[in-house]
Amino acid sequence: MSVDSGRSHLVACACGQVVFEAAGAPILTTVCDCTSCREAGRRIEALPGAAPVLDADGGTSFVLHRKDRVRCTRGGEQLKEYRLKPDSPTRRVVATCCNSAMFLEFNKGHWLSLYRNRIPGAPPVEMRVMTRDRPDGAPLDGNVPAHATHSVAFMWRLFAAWFAMGLRTPRGIDGTKIEA
Q1: Distances from the Cα of 125 to the Cαs of 63, 83, 146, 179, in angstroms?
Q2: Which residues, 6+ apart, have CB-to-CB distance to 133 below 8 Å?
Q3: SS3 assignment, position 148
Q4: Which of 73, 122, 144, 170 is most buried, judged by most C-beta within 10 A?
Q5: Torsions phi, psi for 45 (to 5 deg)
Q6: pLDDT averaged over the chain?
Q7: Domains and CATH numbers, the chain
Q8: Contact 94, 47 (CB under 8 A)
């Protein structure tokens, strides 16, 4: 099912046992080149039978959605969180049935960063962020705007979504409130 601004679309693990539904248009589609996303991608890809996480150039592609518009419809009991450090402000959640990375969630965030490769017909990437963390000499393809950090456009889109949500932060996808 392809992504359409007015319809829901499915986000599924590689074997299909874990499925989310994301309603409406995403906030943004991006590739993150930060050190943490690259390291987490390597760790998740090292799990037995893991589905790919990193793009061919080492970045991690995400489709950001409002947290209140994403729900798990099947297989929630198979979700497991991973953190780079115990006190990390982000958690990456994996479907343990096939070790597919499903989403990244920031503490106190109002959005979820869904792994783009889990979404059939995902929208095209709009920008790259955190390119300052790319390994020396790693070329950029030049097809989308690239920003050394999180750009003003990136932050504005997150703020606009939060404003549309009444400046509230919904519970996490598994129903838990993540505290800092």
Answers
A1: 8, 25, 11, 30
A2: 33, 34, 35, 38
A3: coil
A4: 122
A5: -65, -20
A6: 86
A7: 8-164 (3.90.1590.10)
A8: yes
Element (H, E) at 113: strand 111-115
Residue whose token pair is 């955190």 = 130
Shortest CA distance to 9 belongs to which of 122, 100, 117?
A: 122
- The answer to whether 20 and 102 are in contact (CB under 8 A) is yes
Q: Is 110 helix (H, G, I), strand (E, B) or coil?
A: coil
In DSSP terms, 63 is beta-bridged to: 29, 114
Report how far residue 121's alpha carbon sits from residue 125's, in angstroms, rounded to the nearest whole number: 12
**Closest by Cα among 152, 122, 150, 143 to 37:** 150
Three-state secondary structure of 21-49: EEECCCCEEEEECCHHHHHHHHHHHCCCC
Tokens of 122: 């995902």
Look at residues 31, 27, 26, 28 and name the one whose alpha carbon lies nearest to residue 4.
Answer: 26
Q: pTM above the 0.70 mark?
A: yes
Instruction: Note whether 52 and 104 are within 8 A (CB).
Output: no
Read off the pLDDT of each residue in 66-94 and give the average, rounded to a whole number: 93
pLDDT per residue over 110-153, tens digit each? 999 999 999 998 999 999 999 888 887 676 777 888 888 888 88
For residues 66 and 59, the answer to whether their CB atoms sit within 8 Å is: no
Q: What is the pLDDT of residue 159?
A: 87
